[in-house]
Amino acid sequence: xxxxxxxxxxxxxxxxxxxxxxxxxxxxWKQEDLAEHMGYSSTHISAVxxxxxxxxxxxxxxxxxxxxxxxxxxxxxxxxxxxKHGALLEGFPEFVGHEGxxxxxxxxxxxxxxxxxxxxxxxxxxxxxAVRRGAITAEQASERVSLVSERQAVLRRxxxxxxxxxxxxxxxxxxxxxxxVMDAQLxxxxxxxxxxxxxxxxxxxxxxxxxxxxxxITVITLADRSLMSYAESAQRGHLERxxxxxxPLLTAYHQLQAAALSQSASxxxxxxxxRGTP
Length: 278
Fold this sequence. Notes:
It comes from Streptomyces paromomycinus (Streptomyces rimosus subsp. paromomycinus). The chain is an alpha/beta fold. The chain is built from twelve helices and six strands.
């Protein structure tokens, strides 16, 4: 038999293919058997195993179902996200996968609009700025903007998750992309606040030291009511799965909501900013 050997360390794509083959063989399956379990042709399976074809999100999730790896930390879907979004912060691709299946999302952002609420023009302005600074390439900028759109699909899911968003006042006052881009972005916030499954609040500067977080934080509740949190610095992200570590963050988030402006007062602030009044 002609068998192409892959070096799993050569690339994330090769590591995916090598793991797929190893998992298949550990189950005693031929490529035809795995193809039947996953709903793909044996030729497609062979192409992914040997690195000739890049796996897709659908393929990765199908592999997780076939091998029973759904819900674990090291899924095929996580590996796919590393292939697709390798330029992103450590931990973020995996977080995005959980975010897409969350029952509840609680987010707090500082300085810029959170990705789930960004318009495409706002996201592009941020990405273009990073390119001009030499922080990322034009290709990576395009990837970031595409990911923003992909993540927002969770808001259109049926049933949609409960999404609670608290934005530091700096997020809504910091100009990004010019007046037209900011006006459309502020309008997006008002639309978001009007949805039946959302809560929108602004944490005003006047909160001072009552603000419990100094960095962005997201707490997600999965369908089985388990909790996860994601936080990031300039260099790396951290996905926390231990409930004992996440519960204090959830408590602090509730304290943040209690001290922030109400949704009606927050929307009124946004409307004032759109009118150009302080």
